[in-house]
Amino acid sequence: MSSSLVLGQRAIREALRAPDALLPTLFIPLFFLVVNVGQAGRIFPSNDTAFLHGQSYAAFQLPNSLLIAASFGSAALYLVEEIEGGYLDKLRATPVSRASIVLGRLFAEFVKSLVVSTLVVVLALPFGARMASGFAGFLALIVLMALWAMVFSGFMQLVALKTRSAAATQSAGLVFFPLLFLTPNFVPRELLTRPMEIAATFNPVTYIMEGSRSLILEGFELASVARGFVVVALAGAAMIALSIRSINRYD
Known about the structure:
The chain is mainly alpha-helical. Helix content is 73%, strand content 0%.
């Protein structure tokens, strides 16, 4: 665990040395927030739309932007750089466990996502978004998003270890967009057409979005929030296990 923390701190210092790399992580989620609210905000007025619970449509869209921000992790691309530069081979020759090599960057992604998610929430406040669950709900929200960042970075690291290619790893990130758009991202699940409702029900990202949305719009809806945390826990365990298996077999 201590090796993971040391490698995680190194990855955080690496990110701090290139702060401009974080700008797209903030710009793209806010771009989607502005565009989605601009296109559909007047269709769903806050005083006449039951699922908004008195808030603006920006509050409904905020989980969408947070998920995008959390899925912009750079851990896998840094890992490809280490593979290409030979640093990973040097690291594997040290007594550091291979699991720590995988976990270190995921810890760094968790910390980075806490900061980025906080900034996205703060920047969404002028659009009318509010936290119905208060400060405790805000903490639960950013932790949920940071855990999702670890899950998606774990998937990207897995691709990096398998392909050892920056182009393939970057392309794999596009998988997130079908996952995002097969969720109830514009209206609640019960208002979707039947085929979309079925697709959203089988999409794990749906439960993270609904858990986040309940914290923002309704307060602590235990069942909804718990489903979101269970999904990230199961997906995270699977991704970490697959990544460790992959690096143990790395030759």
